[in-house]
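Table 4 source record.
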Amino acid sequence: MTNMVDTTMVRFEWSKILLLLSTLTVLGFYAPDAELLWTSWMELEEFSHGPMMLAVSLFLLWKRRALLSSPDNRGQMLGVFIIFLSIAVYSLAIKAGIQNARHLSVLSLIFGLFLTFGGLTYARYVFPALILLPFVVPPPSFLNSNLSYGLQLFSTDVSVFSLRAIGVTVFQDGNIIDLGKMKLEVAEACSGLRYLYPMIGLGALSGMLFDIMLWKRCLFLVLAAAISIIMNSVRIFLTGAFVEFTDMGVSEGFFHLFEGWVFFLISFVIVLGACWLTLTKKEKATVGNGVLNVSDVEPTHAEISIKTPVFSAIALCVALVPVTLYLRNLEPTIPARTSFSSFPLKIGNLIAEEDQIPGIEAQILQMSDYFLGHYKEQGLPPISLFIGYYDQQSAGRTPHSPRVCIPSGGWEIRNLETVELMKDGKPVPVNRVLIGKGEQKLLVYYWFQQRGKFIANEYAAKFNLLLGGLTSSRTDGALVRLSMPISSTMSEVVADKRLEEFSSNLFPVLPKYIPDA
């Protein structure tokens, strides 16, 4: 009997050693991506809470270590499947240059390893710690941009409404709050993402402190998100109120920074208070006994199979080594093209006046090459053409959708639809956007162009980018945008006809500067 127990314990130790080695192998090849994540934590304020969440995750692992003495066989083959799927996603994300997918796939890979080596008990051990980390992984840049611009507009609208409610005369122009003696711009940094991301993480952590139902933990997340958005609007409102009733300079410098930190702490307390009020007396008594409560697990000495599932997991982790090395050293294919410096300034009967994008905007867009020109015809409004080209798209280096950029400039989207233009006798989809600012109206056509494909939808463009990264080594692409002011004496039908004619003359020119497949 003693020998059987000793043999079983040796198997347990071998299982733990193999699990440790497999995890270290995964983390070793994840190191370059971890460095990118750390850079995001250090440079982007909305993700600066990352190290704290990592420390909390490690603390949870330490407090739940008793579960490591109770491995079982349940779910081991499921763990192997999760490992395989995670490695596949991780490899594809490397090839397609999608950073956030790499982070999340590694988290699921580690979860699969623990499930394979120790069954559901090990999965239960690691899951609470891993579930906190996705809240600090930067989302895809295009989703982040959509969310940021949406929050900017919401915060501006709420702040302007509140200022008018207390009798302040204020004019709103997009994300700009005009108080007369001073204009406040609700910039991207003021969108509320610096509150939103940490507060959602706080909501998730708060839900783990109590022994409560899953739906109530989800409620904590909703409350945290809602309160952070509302408090950011209140912060902007108070800034406007201080500008109106006191010195204009209080919205800048130290006060602005101090106000941000004060409101972050106030938001922190309000989130905790709101979550506390949703709990029953019985649930409040469970504080500290949520995910940290592992007393219901008894150590087991059952014999654990470490054959097929464990060896399969080890083989997959070993295979990760050459696959990762190959993909990381795979040189992208950058097709030959002609620089926009030679782009024709005459298209049809229109002659262009070339323009330049301000340096700050060009730095934000991170384009490989671009063209901006205003094509004029006698007696008619000019047609502005912008083409932003990327020879290699990756996280942070992709075209910014006009759908989310237009509102931040003070323009209101009055109509947005997808129409079809004819190219070589075939229809191609483009976005038709009618925007306005007061009495001004502007008609905009835009589309994404990648490897010979014309794409109107932003999400379809991202999918095509991923597909291009998988089927070839090319991730190049461009955004093409046409715009024309509509005068009070011009109908939309006439404006559409002008842009359609210009587009038909533009299509044959583009392949030289935006390579086809």
